[in-house]
């Protein structure tokens, strides 16, 4: 068994985290709002991790996550359009 297989097995057998269990129970977003609101606002990496947990483990759609990812997509598309605007104008 090589090292990559061992890492794959380890990843599959890790126990659920507290946050994953809250997300499955539909309580994580409320928990984040009540107890970790400051951290969510200031720590972008933590926010992204929590949104990933919510996206992966929630049984119901969460409006805040959908809105967050739509905003990120709009930002990316706006940047792309601005970045390619000179090239697109030259073609016409």
Can you describe this structure?
It is a single chain. The protein has 92 residues and is mainly alpha-helical. The protein has 6 helices and no strands. It has helices spanning 3-12, 18-24, 28-35, 37-42, 44-57, 63-91. The relative contact order is 0.09.
Question: How many domain units?
Answer: 1
Helix and strand content put the structural class at mainly alpha
Query: Main β-sheet, in a few words?
Result: none
Helix content: over 70%
How much is the radius of gyration in Å? 19 Å
The rough form would be described as flat
Summarize it.
With 92 residues, this protein is an all-alpha fold. Helices cover 80% and strands 0% of the residues.
